[in-house]
Amino acid sequence: MSLLLTNIKELLQVREQNILKVSGSEMKELPTIKNAWLLIENDEIADYGSMENIPEINADETIDTSGKIVLPTWCDSHTHIVYAGNREQEFADRINGLSYEEIANRGGGILNSAKTLQETPEDEVYKQSAKRLEEVMKLGTGAVEIKSGYGLTEEAELKMLRVIKKLRENYNLPVKSTFLGAHAIPKEYKNDPDAYMDLVINEILPKVADQKLAEYIDIFCEKGYFSLEDTHRLLDAAKKFGLKPKIHVNQFNAIGGVKAGVEHKALSVDHLEVMNDEDIEALKGSNTMPVALPSCSLFLSIPYTPARRILDADLPLALATDFNPGSTPSGNMNLVVSLACIKMKMTPEEAINAATINGAYAMELSKTHGSITKGKKANFIITKEIPSYTYLPYAFGSNSIESVYINGKMI
């Protein structure tokens, strides 16, 4: 089966195969072809070029995309899509003056979601999560990472990871799985948090590995949650099972989590709303991808990741949604790209790079996803007729997407 797109107003993110991520000033460059064509064969990108030089192609289907822009699907490298219920009451509580920490101390926050998930049957958790996954796919996401972390018991954490596995089996896009048992301290372990870490490391982690339910390990390294010592201990243990770190750091405080992540060769360090000079220095020369989650900052009214400091230090940056019931009940990567431009002062080129090629890197997918490259998977977005790609982040309240293709097929 072959598909030919012709008269593309602009084909974005056209790259050679060996480019896996972009950093610093490179992120200002977004390679494009104007008045372009794109050939898809089966589920891969076969060829592309300018309409001025289009060869004779006998495709099974041809689509005229005059006035429309084509770009790779978004790569969302940080989500918590698998959960049960919602937390809209806490949304009202915050409006009424309670902080995220105060809500957590009252039994809300992550512990609230954990209680709901523990009480919800696995098939119902799957149905709710599948609906959210379908929603983000329609919004242009073509690769996604999903974390556990709303279970906080052995049974419930494994239940979440089984749901992630089932989503991966039933939906035709890359779904990466992360074990985040160290997301919060359960109430019953409040006075003995070390005992909960013992449970995560000695009881749950071996089962996760044995059942092949996760590729990555995560921990919420933050005051009031898990310490630097906890982080080192968990990541050392996970290394023995072949799980790579992708960790929550610097959401509210800088306590050394970035450096710890780099020392453990973390694939990514995520959140980074609070950054100091030591964090920036720790990332230099590493292969760790910093990941910003601007819609979390919007929802919680906390600072945004200092993108300009990170990029001016010649570092890369990825963007992701943090889709979850408490701090970011949205998986809309289009909004994330807009917020990066509006609130983090990223250029449209930088934001699109961060949400595609660098997002793919943060899931070890940049050899197959994240750019328009021969041989990569045919995951792409066709926009409506819009004036330019800058219009995507500019029109933050509009849906500029006409159609989304995953593996060469329109969803």
From TrEMBL:
Q: Which UniProt keywords apply?
A: Cytoplasm, Histidine metabolism, Hydrolase, Iron, Metal-binding, Zinc
Q: Where does 4-imidazolone-5-propanoate bind?
A: R87, Y150, H183, Q251, S327
Listed under catalytic activity are:
4-imidazolone-5-propanoate + H2O = N-formimidoyl-L-glutamate
Is Metal-binding found in the keyword set? yes
**Which amino acids does the record list as binding N-formimidoyl-L-glutamate?**
Y150, N324, G326
Q: Which EC number(s) does UniProt give?
A: 3.5.2.7
- Cellular component terms, GO, for this chain's entry? cytoplasm
Q: Where along this sequence does the record place binding of Fe(3+)?
A: H78, H80, H248, D322
- Which compartments is it annotated to reside in? Cytoplasm
Top-level taxon in the UniProt lineage: Bacteria
Which SUPFAM superfamilies does the entry mention? Answer: Composite domain of metallo-dependent hydrolases (SSF51338), Metallo-dependent hydrolases (SSF51556)
Family the entry assigns = Belongs to the metallo-dependent hydrolases superfamily. HutI family.
Protein's recorded name: Imidazolonepropionase
